Amino acid sequence: MLHGKNAIVTGSTSGIGLGIAEALAQAGANVMMNGFGDAKEIEADRARLEKDHGVKVLYSPANMMDRHEIAGMVETARETFGSVDVLVNNAGIQHVAPIETFPPEKWDAIIAINLSAAFHSMRAVIPDMKERRFGRIINIASAHALVASPFKSAYVAAKHGIAGLTKTVALEAAEHGITVNAIAPGYVLTPLVEAQIPDTAKARGISEEEVKRDVLLAAQPTKQFVTVEQLGELAVFLCGDAAASITGTILPVDGGWTAQ
Ligand code: NAD
After folding, report:
1. How far lies 41's CA from each of 13, 25, 46, in Å?
2. Distance CA 33, CA 49 (A)
3. Rounded to the nearest whole angstrom, what is the distance from the C-alpha of residue 69 to the centroid of ligand 1?
4. Which residue among 94, 181, 185, 215 is the one 20 to 30 A from 191 at the CA level?
5. For residues 180 and 141, what is the distance between their CA atoms, to the nearest angstrom?
6. Does residue 28 or residue 95 have the better pLDDT?
7. What is the pLDDT of residue 194?
8. What would the pLDDT profile of 74-130 be if each residue is shown by its tens digit?
9. Centroid of ligand 1 to alpha carbon of 86 (angstroms)
């Protein structure tokens, strides 16, 4: 379905980004991976995607806090692949603290990685997409793009911001064959979330199953985690011709969380 298309997925060395990179590769797209982590593990994932799906997979270590590195990543992808047809802005971090003790440097980092990076990368890919009259941009937002939770001021601000940025760029690009959408997941059991479960169970004196159901999934009516595979398939759908009229949307994939 995406044969001949070239994609960048930021923050794709782990979790949701890796799942989306894999789904795009499976659909036939060449992919540039990005993110941090153990060099050997990253190379193993890169080589596996290439081998399993018969596509070209590159890796960029660009730091999403640095606009020059973001521009360099886009340029490398364009030079190596010939074009960038799909951009998935997924890299993100979290910090949880009350506003009065929220470290200002964490605020700056979250706004930079979760919001400003998408501005810089979209700015870099749009001219070429306009010229080629095709583009698919997917910003990974969160249920926190639509509703708030306490102690997540920077994250909620960044995710609400990415919702506005998505709509704005969608309007600017609409007549050029480019769609811009945000996916707003509820809880996904990525390594990041998984790592918190044993400690929370110990701290609260409850089982790990109870942590999942009564703490993590308290706001999610299905009481099921969203999976990276579900998000990957949605991303592939948004890249296809059937989704050409879907633009400027914030698509909740949250088990009913934001319906409440
Ligand atoms: P994760 O920690 O598993 O993955 C985050 C990725 O971002 C990693 O590849 C990491 O290396 C990369 N990254 C972090 N800082 C970076 C930087 N400065 N430059 C480049 N890459 C950087 O997390 P995840 O759960 O897969 O989250 C991915 C996205 O999904 C984030 O935007 C997050 O806000 C969003 N999200 C996650 C959940 C969830 O429940 N896990 C829910 C809603 C939205």
Report:
1. 9, 18, 9
2. 10
3. 18
4. 181
5. 12
6. 28
7. 85
8. 999 999 999 999 999 999 999 889 999 999 999 999 999 999 999 999 999 999 999
9. 18
Separation of 218 CA from ligand 1 center, angstroms? 22
Atom of ligand 1 nearest to the CA of 191: 3
Q: Is 155 one of the catalytic residues? A: yes
Residue of the nearest CA to atom 41 in ligand 1?
A: 188
Task: Given the residues 59, 155, 225, 257, select the one marked as catalytic.
Answer: 155
**E strand residue ranges, 10-162:** 30-34, 57-60, 86-89, 135-140
Instruction: Spell out the domain ranges in the chain.
Output: 6-186+227-253, 187-225
Pick the CATH number of 6-186+227-253 from 3.30.70.100, 3.40.50.720, 1.20.1560.10, 3.40.50.2000: 3.40.50.720
How confident is the model over 138-194, as pLDDT tens digits? 999 999 999 999 899 999 999 999 999 999 999 999 999 999 999 999 999 997 788
User: Angle at Cα 239 formed by Cα 117 and Cα 44, nearest 5°?
Assistant: 65
Q: What is the whole-number distance in angstroms between the Cα of residue 16 and the centre of ligand 1? A: 7
Q: What residue ranges line ligand 1, CB within 6 angstroms?
A: 11-17, 34-37, 63-65, 90-93, 113-114, 140, 142, 185, 187-188, 190-193
